[in-house]
Amino acid sequence: MLRVLANGVCLATLMLAPPLAWAAEAEQCRAVRMAEPGWNDLAFTTGIAGVLLEALGYETKSDVLGINVIYEGMKNKDLDAFLGYWDPAGVTYFEPYKKDGSIENVRLNLTGAKFTFAVPTYVWEAGVKDFSDLHKFADKFGKKMYGIEPGSNKLMMDAIADPSLGLDGWQVVESSEAGMLSEVGYEIKEKHFIVFLGWAPHPMNTMYDIKYLTGGDKFYGPNFGAATVTTQVRKGYLQECPNVGQFLKNLTFDVDLENVGIGYLINDGMQPKEAALKAITLNKGRLDAWLADVTTFDGKPGLAAVKEKLGL
């Protein structure tokens, strides 16, 4: 009888006891080493990861490195995570590491990205809806299309060289991202015709009323140069640091969020973590999904800790 009673007391005690806390992450996981290639979209998304991980009690570092250096760093275990594998633009860079298994994909963190020719909406409405329409309005365009930095406009030049498009005599005006967009802003203000290299995510999509042209599949790929972005880690990292791994599995973005967030960097001059904190504060409803089943470094509920740390 005493044994039964004792067992009952033990059972009742267990039932009344609070749930066991999650185990803390291993000490070698405290420092999360990331990198990005200096692109505004990745500066912003890596900034979000950094702000949230630090609020969870981790230490983060993000270096600006060339893509090939990032991949070598991950292969050699000098870096842990990279939020910026653009497919198809980055396929050539990633292929060797995919083959040897030294870098692993975690998940798609962005869909709906695009990269191709764009025009102001009033130009599109005037009849320039496809690459094949450009030659019909050559005089209005001054036989010019606007690109970014020299060396980054090869596909534009390939389009001009393609006899099927009738763009003989056209030229690519090369300057910089900022220079191109300054020209776009001026031409739109004056209601002139202009065709330029457009992409999303980018604040140009909210700053200007623009449309993307069809017909560029041969150069930029289908669906307006559609691209995805994937989070990657060094081999074995998800198993070594499962809590950070769960966070990275949860972390996704969308084009609208990034259009606005990149604007904080470009237009407002914010630093990446400053821009990230503003975006998180204005989109705190996303925290439920980003922090599902994630704890602090020392094993406490992650969502509550982040809200308290960030004053949300």
UniProtKB/TrEMBL annotation:
Residues 32-278 form the ABC-type glycine betaine transport system substrate-binding domain. Residues 1-23 form the signal peptide. Gene3D superfamilies: Glycine betaine-binding periplasmic protein, domain 2, Periplasmic binding protein-like II. Keywords: Signal. InterPro entries: ABC_choline_sub-bd, ABC_Gly_betaine_transp_sub-bd. NCBIfam families: ABC_choline_bnd. This is Choline ABC transporter substrate-binding protein. It comes from Mesorhizobium caraganae. The lineage of its organism: Bacteria, Pseudomonadati, Pseudomonadota, Alphaproteobacteria, Hyphomicrobiales.
